[in-house]
Write a structure and sequence with these properties.
By secondary structure, the protein is an alpha+beta fold. The chain is built from four helices and 19 strands. It folds into two domains: 126 residues, Diaminopimelate Epimerase, Chain A, domain 1, CATH 3.10.310.10; 138 residues, Diaminopimelate Epimerase, Chain A, domain 1, CATH 3.10.310.10. The strands form two sheets. It has a 17-stranded mixed sheet that branches.
Amino acid sequence: MKARFIKMHGCGNDFVVMDDRARMLGISPARAAAIANRRTGVGCDQFIVIEPGDDAFMRIYNPDGSEAGACGNATRCVASLIAAETGRTGLNIRTISGDLPATVLPDGRVRVDMGAARLGWADIPLAYAMDTLHLDLSRGPVADPAAAGMGNPHATFFVPDIDALDIPAIGPSLETDPLFPARANIGFVQVLASDRIRLRVWERGAGLTLACGSGACAALVNAARRGLTGRRAAVIVDGGELEIAWRDDGHVLMTGPVATAFSGEIDLSAFPA
């Protein structure tokens, strides 16, 4: 069976997007992982399937086939596709973690309401009760992260020099630490100013990526909770820049660019069902 796909990215966080609103593709976790493979598939940080639901339901698979609850960069990509299809600039993208309202701005960027940050230990979730502003967790040169849930679990370490970290060496064991029953995305932040931070994220199921939208939201929330920044900041990621605002009602807004790399067609029967 031939199937169309679009390769997109937000700040370098790249996605294979397929439209399955007709529910004919038969995408399984194994098939998603195979297509996401950078050597034998199309290759991506996350495999995105558009399904029926309000304006669209977005299903998110990591390269290992596990399902993610939210992805801010992918939400912007899907919102831009639906906006181009419908002519509407205000959209609602549904996920397994809830609805993500999105607005396509006149400059082409997309703003997404990522919902309220979840700061209780059971809501992130953590394995047991703990102050989420100061986790009893360390690995090598990093310690004392803060945690927040943004549709998926995040732990944020604050460091003086992000370039000095060997993130691939410490990321995997932090992601799978017993403190995180659902694993976690591990962010590393260097505060540059009260309204500017730099972020790198080891994503659960994906590894080190050029950008992580939900991770940028969690990073700003945790930095503001620590008094290191205000409630609005530019978040510099390896692939570009995101604008994050933590509103007084607890919701986190993320604004950033969308890009299409290419489109194509694959034979689904070449990938395991």
